[in-house]
Specification:
Number of helices: 14
CATH architecture of the largest domain: 3-Layer(aba) Sandwich
Strand order of the largest sheet: 2-3-6-1-7
CATH topology of the largest domain: Rossmann fold
CATH class of the largest domain: Alpha Beta
Structural class: alpha/beta
Order of helices and strands: HEHEHHEHEEEHHEHHHHHHH
Helix content: 40-55%
Strand content: 5-15%
Distance between the termini: 47 Å
Number of domains: 3
C-alpha cells in the first residue's frame, strides 16, 4: 500500500489498516469526476469522508459542497429540494426555488441515505448522472449542471435491488468507486486516539479541563461493541467530560445519557442476550407453531422483540431507534405498522 496515499486525511482520526484503505481510495478518486458510493453503518463517518473527497478534488474544491439527507424528507419535498420548483408548481410554491443540484454546480453534492429515495426520484437522479441535466418541478426548461455526486447508504443496495426497492441501473451509476467504511468494532486500534481527540475537543467546547483517562476506563471503552460507532463514542465522551467536571474519568459515569444504570459491557453480551431470547421463543412457541412456519415465526418474533426493546430504550423516538438498529426510519415505520395490525405485535409507537 502506498504510504502517502494511505496517510490519514486532515480532520479525520484513525490510522488502522481498515481506515488507511479508506484514505487511499478517497485520495485516488478525489481528483476525478467519478461518482462515489460510501457504504457503512450509521455513525461511521461517511460525511467526513465525503467532505474530505470534496476538499481534495482540485478545482472542484473551490465550488460548493451541498448535503442532502434523502431520508429526512417526503418524496414531494425531496424532489423540490433536489431539483427546485417554479412559482405555482404546487400548493405552497409561492416563489421560484433553486434546487440543491443547481446550487452545487461546479462543486459536490452529497446524497445521504440514498436507499430511501423513491423509484420516481431515482429515475430523475439517473438522468442527472447520465445526462447532467434536469427540469425544475413545474417547469419544462432543461437545466444543465456540472456536479459531482457522492452518495451514502447504511443499507446493502444489492439487497434493496433484489427486493425491488432500488434501480440496478442507478446503482451501477452511483457505485463507480465504492468505499466501505469499517464499523468501530473492526478498528479498535483507533479507539484510544479517538477518545483523546474527543476529550480535548469536548473539554474545550464545554469549558472544562480535560479529565485524565485511567487505564481501566480505556480498557472498558475498548471492550465495548459500539453499535452507534464513532458517533456513539463522541456523545459518550462529551457526557463523561461534563459529568467528570475535570476530575479523572471513572467507569461509573460511562453509560447512555439518561440511563445511568446501564454500563459499558463486553461485545459478547449482546450476542448472548439474543441467543437467550431465541431459546425463550423456541421454548414458548415450538409446540404451537404449524408445521413449516417455525423459522418464519421465530425470526419474526426475535425481530419484533428486538425492535420493541430498542424503541423503549429510546423512549419510542423512531429516528433514534432506527439509527440504533442500523435501518432506515421508513423501514422501521413499516415494521411498527405491521406489528400494530391484529395479531401483529406491540402497539404502534408514535414518533416524537
Amino acid at each position: 500500500m502506498d504510504d502517502a496515499l494511505a496517510a490519514p486525511l486532515p480532520e479525520i482520526v484513525g490510522d488502522s489498516l481498515a481506515m488507511r484503505e479508506v484514505y487511499r481510495l478517497a485520495r485516488l478518486v478525489a481528483p476525478t469526476r467519478a461518482s462515489v458510493l460510501l457504504v457503512g453503518e450509521t455513525g461511521t463517518g461517511k460525511e467526513l469522508i465525503a467532505k474530505a473527497i470534496h476538499r481534495l478534488s482540485g478545482h472542484r474544491s473551490e465550488g460548493p459542497y451541498v448535503r442532502v439527507n434523502c431520508g429526512a424528507l417526503a418524496e414531494s419535498l425531496l424532489e423540490s429540494e433536489l431539483f427546485g420548483h417554479v412559482k405555482g408548481a404546487f400548493t405552497g410554491a409561492l416563489d421560484n426555488k433553486t434546487g440543491r443540484f443547481e446550487a452545487a454546480h461546479g462543486g459536490t453534492i452529497f446524497l445521504d441515505e440514498i436507499s430511501s429515495m423513491s423509484f420516481k426520484l431515482q429515475v430523475k437522479l439517473l438522468r442527472v448522472l447520465q445526462e447532467a441535466e434536469f427540469e425544475r418541478v413545474g417547469e419544462s426548461r432543461t437545466i444543465r449542471v456540472d456536479t459531482r455526486v457522492i452518495a451514502a447508504t447504511n443499507q446493502f443496495l444489492e439487497d434493496e435491488i433484489e427486493a425491488g426497492r432500488f434501480r440496478d441501473d442507478l446503482y451501477y451509476r452511483l457505485n463507480v468507486v465504492p468505499i466501505q467504511l469499517p464499523p468501530l468494532r473492526d478498528r479498535r486500534d483507533d479507539i484510544p486516539a479517538l477518545v483523546r481527540y474527543f476529550l480535548e475537543r469536548k473539554s474545550e467546547d464545554n469549558r472544562r479541563d480535560p479529565p485524565d483517562l485511567p487505564q481501566e476506563v480505556l480498557k472498558a471503552l475498548l471492550s465495548y461493541d459500539w453499535p452507534g460507532n464513532v458517533r456513539e463514542l463522541e456523545n459518550l465522551i462529551e457526557r463523561a467530560v461534563v459529568l467528570s467536571n475535570g476530575k479523572p474519568l471513572t467507569t461509573s459515569i460511562l453509560g447512555w445519557p439518561g440511563r445511568g444504570e446501564r454500563r459499558l459491557r463486553p461485545a459478547k453480551s449482546r450476542t448472548n442476550d439474543l441467543e437467550s431470547l431465541i431459546q425463550q421463543l423456541v421454548r414458548v412457541g415450538i409446540q404451537t407453531l404449524p408445521k413449516g412456519t417455525l423459522d418464519k415465526q421465530i425470526v419474526g418474533g426475535v425481530e419484533q422483540e428486538l425492535i420493541q426493546q430498542v424503541m423503549q430504550m429510546h423512549d419510542k423516538v423512531q429516528v433514534k431507534a432506527a439509527e440504533h438498529l442500523g435501518i432506515n426510519r421508513n423501514t422501521l415505520h413499516k415494521k411498527l405498522d405491521q406489528y400494530h395490525k391484529p395479531n401483529g405485535g406491540p402497539p404502534h409507537a408514535e414518533d416524537t
